[in-house]
């Protein structure tokens, strides 16, 4: 195995959600079966839901026993994977972001899935593959091979203060132009109209992708300082400068400020909707799909995948068996209903059971309705360093109030160097 390098904190920040709960004890393995070890960062109700699925899988067949071992949180999970790679004590599979895959592959940590996924009696058929939403499938590939399957996936959505919108004389915005009008109207009455997390990078790339440009293209051309990205960035920068919008600052997430009732709209991960639903008490809360921009809808997907690690090759068939079980329509539907994460397949999304779930839990409908518009940022070796530079650029725009036209071109040059050095 090649020498393993440590990943920076920016990658760790991408991974997570709530980390306040204690780790869940691993499920015991049967001695008569092949034990397959899963490391994850799931906690609290998410861990309990995953435990249930693991138990169902183990009871569904007699060849393998998946043993789930929670690492307590996502940051710790990543650190332990790196340490285990050095000591050659990796588990059989683990949660990971798709953007970690290129560096994991470079270091010999992950194994490709093609020999199981596309070949043999337990492969995925073309029909089954098409049933998975394209945004998830595309991010599972690296250099022409599959290295992960989607699992705990979320998307950017818009949280809406319906009471304040009504006071301002607006309905739920459908376009970014509507958002800008609401932000101006709210500011005129002494409130900020729009709230973002500490960084607005995912909203910005969603806008620029709708206009036809990602920060980094498929062929690894840096577009961060392109006219389309700068136009969208200048729009957000103007809202921030005019006091029409705010970012969460050091708090990272701005849900508490939104919950106070002084902001009409707040852009958030769908994974945080459940928290907002319990913290909002002062007004009627709704959610909506990310607004269209220049006539097109686009919203960035986030969350975690599962990867097969280079541990015991005799266990790899068991790893794939469990992965395929997670991609079953009924399994992903069950997972989505229990956690609020997205269903991975079109059949699960459109099932009678899931539609009934959305009727009872309407705040999650916006995330489900966003699936056809979901995309994922380009992954590549050195992504962590690139993302650190990108977040630094966005921070200069927000905390230092420097214009994107000044900051982004300099950052784009650094990004090109990072990509070139990691090829």
From TrEMBL:
Kindly indicate whether the keyword Transport belongs to this entry: yes
Recite the UniProt keywords alphabetically: Signal, Transport
Q: Name one GO cellular component term.
A: cell envelope
Presence of keyword Signal: yes
What the entry lists under InterPro entries is as follows: Bact_solute-bd_prot1, SBP
The signal peptide annotation in the UniProt record is 1-22
Which compartments does it reside in? Cell envelope
Main localization, broad class: other
One Pfam family per UniProt: SBP_bac_8
Per the record, the similarity remark reads: Belongs to the bacterial solute-binding protein 1 family.
Can you say what this protein is called? ABC transporter substrate-binding protein
Q: Please name the source species.
A: Oenococcus sicerae
